[in-house]
Design a protein that fits this description.
Residues 317-418 form the UDP-glucose/GDP-mannose dehydrogenase C-terminal domain. Its EC number is 1.1.1.22. The protein has 18 helices and 14 strands. By secondary structure, it is an alpha/beta fold. The protein is 45% helix and 14% strand. The chain folds into two domains: 2-195, NAD(P)-binding Rossmann-like Domain (Rossmann fold); 227-429, Rossmann fold (3-Layer(aba) Sandwich). It starts with a strand and ends with a strand. It has a six-stranded parallel beta sheet with strand order 3-2-1-4-5-6, with helices on both faces. The chain has a six-stranded parallel beta sheet with strand order 11-10-9-12-13-14. Strands 7-8 form a two-stranded parallel ribbon. The structure holds nicotinamide-adenine-dinucleotide. Nicotinamide-adenine-dinucleotide binds at residues 6-12, 29-32, 35, 83-86, 98, 101-102, 120-121, 149, 151, 153, 257-258.
């Protein structure tokens, strides 16, 4: 099949590379010229394991093409996947300006029956506006479908090839056939439904994942008050097959380009339809509280009691900037909020992340960055763990002890064993234990 993928970001580029690898002819369109020029030379603009190999291999095989020009791609395609960003506005609502711009350009270039499948996460209720936008420009038949994306950054290729499910939001048999044929080589349960249900599946799934994280965080706060160990409690809770272990981990809160924005957009969307999703408002509130609780621990460990400049003169190492391991994405990452608080309180921050330092430099040009994890902690008053990269778990505790000025670990991801580190003479602050 010949396809156009609109948007060469985390979702679009992975989708384009995987569909090309499965034998389709794929055109990937993006409006950012430098990105497209780089991709033509095999330069992937973000870190995602194996993606560069996929991009290089499929361009060489002449199955994958990059362009800024919709007219080079859309007229040849049977299906167009819209994968542009849907970031939050200030009020939490999804900003659909990129989506409408992409759909308009697609409409102007349609030729013959084309399925326009929306992969971006978009709120329910815009079907009529999208349809009207296309009708204004299109001279041929078209249909809309929703094919929400569930990939996780860091394992995006694997997730695209072996997803738990493929949601096919399309009502006509013709549109369903296009999507089913295209996904035929990919494993996973097929959920065939109408467009609205497909979009709702995506929001509901992310909202439930966020709810699990906030539940774990609320339980952690309670464990600290009760003198229980949240890690043990959640091991016992998650062992129940009806519940499961995944996403039941306390920490500095969920972040990234999806969960925070999708929770807020879902609350907004529910409100629009006359439902007050107060459960999700609490999920969001618990998540925001995790940053303050973490900073509270830093102040307890190092603070001088001063309200506004409570960490003045203190040197801290922040380990981990990406919102999770195996990505360089710092969109809505807890690290950004943590560093903002630390800097406001007067701390001198030295940060280290295996992949995300280039992105962090754009937001925090003034803090220090270390070339490796041991250099980051040398001479610091405390070591703060904000992202659970495996190289942090594997650090030699005796070396950490020698390098830190004061043996203080504030572990925002519970990667260390409290008994072991305390036994070595560290002052240790975890989450919920
Ligand atoms: N990142 C994830 O892990 C993930 C997972 C599932 C779903 N999603 C959803 O998928 C969508 C895309 O997310 P992302 O992380 O890939 O975004 P992204 O910001 O990484 O990529 C979006 C791309 O679209 C391009 N673009 C913007 N307007 C365009 C236009 N008019 N024409 C062509 N290209 C245009 C941008 O230049 C950018 O390269 C969002 O709705 C997101 O919520 C993301």
């Amino acid at each position: 099949m010949t396809l156009t993928i609109v948007g060469a970001g985390y979702v679009g580029l992975v989708t384009a590379a995987v569909f090309a690898d499965l034998g389709n002819r794929v055109f990937c369109v993006d409006i950012v010229r430098e990105k497209v020029e780089g991709l033509k030379k095999g330069k992937v603009p973000f870190f995602e394991p194996s993606l560069t190999e996929y991009v290089v291999r499929n361009q060489a095989a002449k199955r994958l093409f990059f362009t800024t020009n919709y007219s080079e791609a859309v007229p040849k395609s049977q299906a167009v996947f819209i994968c542009v960003g849907t970031p939050p506005k200030n009020n939490g609502e999804a900003d659909l300006s990129y989506l409408f711009a992409a759909v308009e350009e697609t409409a102007k270039n349609l030729s013959g029956y084309t399925l326009i499948a929306i992969k971006s996460t978009i709120p329910i209720g815009f079907e009529d506006d999208l349809e009207a936008t296309v009708k204004k420009y299109a001279k041929t038949k078209f249909e809309f479908g929703a094919c929400p994306e569930f990939l996780r950054e860091g394992t995006a290729i694997e997730d695209t090839l072996h997803p738990d499910r493929i949601v096919i939001g399309a009502t006509s048999k013709k549109a369903q056939k296009v999507l089913l044929e295209l996904h035929a080589p990919i494993s996973g349960e097929r959920i065939i439904c109408d467009v609205r249900s497909a979009q709702l599946i995506k929001y509901a799934a992310n909202a439930l994942l966020a709810t699990k994280v906030s539940f774990a965080n609320a339980l952690a706060a309670l464990c600290e008050k009760m003198g229980a160990d949240v890690k043990k409690v959640l091991a016992g809770v998650g062992a129940d097959r009806r519940i499961g272990h995944s996403f039941l981990y306390p920490g500095v809160g969920y972040g990234g380009s999806c969960l925070p924005k999708d929770v807020l957009a879902f609350i907004h969307l529910a409100n629009h339809f006359g439902y007050d999703f107060d459960l999700l408002r609490s999920v969001d509130a618990v998540n925001n509280g995790q940053i303050e609780a973490f900073i509270g621990k830093v102040r307890t460990a190092l603070g001088n009691g001063h309200l506004k400049r409570g960490l003045a003169g203190k040197k801290v190492a922040v380990l981990g900037l990406a919102f999770k391991p195996n990505t360089d994405d710092i969109r809505d990452a807890p690290s950004v909020k943590v560093i903002n608080h630390l800097v406001d309180l007067g701390a001198e921050v030295t940060a280290y992340d295996p992949q995300a330092m280039a992105n962090a430099r754009k937001i925090f040009p003034k803090i220090k960055y270390a070339p490796n994890v041991y250099k980051a902690i040398e001479g610091q008053d405390a070591m703060l763990v904000v992202t659970e990269w495996s190289e942090f778990r594997e650090m030699d505790l005796s070396v950490i002890k020698k390098l830190l000025k004061r043996p203080i670990i504030i572990d925002g991801r519970n990667i260390f064993d409290p008994e072991k580190v305390k036994g070595l003479g560290f002052k240790y602050y975890g989450i919920g234990r």
